Give the backbone structure.
Amino acid sequence: MSIDAPGSSAPGPHPRAGRRSIVRAAVTGSQRVSAQESERVAEARARAQERLHRQRGTLRPLGWAVLIVVVLGSANSHPVPGLHGKALAVTLALCVFAVTLLIAVRDGFPERSLELQTAVIAVMGAAGVAIAGLQVQGATEVAAGVAVFMAISRLPFNAGVAIGGAVTIALAAVTAVAGSSSSAVAAGTLVTVLLGVVAQSLKQSRNSQDRTELLLAQLQDAREEQARAAASPSSRIAGELHDVLAQPPLSEAIDRASELVKAGLADARQAVGALRGDALPTLAQLPALIDSYKADMNLDVTLRIEGDARTLPADRSLALYRATEEALTNVARYAPSGCATVTVRYGPARTTLSVDNGASDTPPLQGMGSGRGLQGLRERIERAGGTMSAGATPDGWRVEIEVPV
């Protein structure tokens, strides 16, 4: 008796094919399913196939043992198989059961179409029920129980339960009509139910192990991808540093390098966060952001909300959050002792964010800032469908961003 994954119809390697051929077959199959599937994932699928064939080979001798038990039980029951009347019916039912069981335990049967497997198992169940109904005094209920086991272990869950349930109910009804005692009917029903439960437990255990190995392989792939994503901005920075240092004056090159490092680190954080499934920051995190600037940079910052707050599309909300970061960083750099106000206005058609800062009596840091930070911010806002303006005011400096609802 062999067990296969539910609904499986793709050919699998023979258990004697060897580890290397199994992996090669799995890799080939995975390339047909997904061109991006890694060799590690293909090997996990190969190990699952190998386990399936090994389990099937281990249980196959039980199928032969069951056939022998059913034949011997039928030969010692009444009426014995024969060529006339009821005995002929027993013979035919026994032959049908034997043929279908021998087909089902063959190595290539799980690779047949799902329709053929379903038909063979259903006929096996019907033959098992017929044997039990014809030989009431025999111990032949095991034939129907084997059909239930095969249905649950081989077929998709719904189809397996449907056939297994139908065989169990039919067995109880036929044996009761044939004159079996209530205890005998209950015992036969219990045997078939237990065989179905065992089949489902074995299948779930194997499937759980398969899923665990596959998830572990995918997790390792994701970690490698995360490492590559985190490293890629560094490569980009190195290339651009080489270009900028070769041409402009040193101060401009350092400025450009600073902006590249900031952009690279932001890209890396965003890539790593996306791989981990972290949520991107939104306007809802503005209070925490402002508190961090107060605590870490000793800035005097006030947050004001005007209008009814609402949830914006993710790209626009992220753009406004990053705009606040850039503006407050500039305040800390150029006017560290001045006060700043962050205002979010929710209008009927647009959302506006402005950052105003007053004059500072502390001189700004020298040799830093090239305007590229604001240019990069403007590009981010425009990609989100918004507009940005920045310039001097009578009281200091203002950055203002508008995005549509």
In short: The domain at 283-404 is CATH 3.30.565.10 (Heat Shock Protein 90). The first strand starts at residue 300 and ends at 306. The chain has two domains: 15-218, 283-404. The radius of gyration is 36 Å.
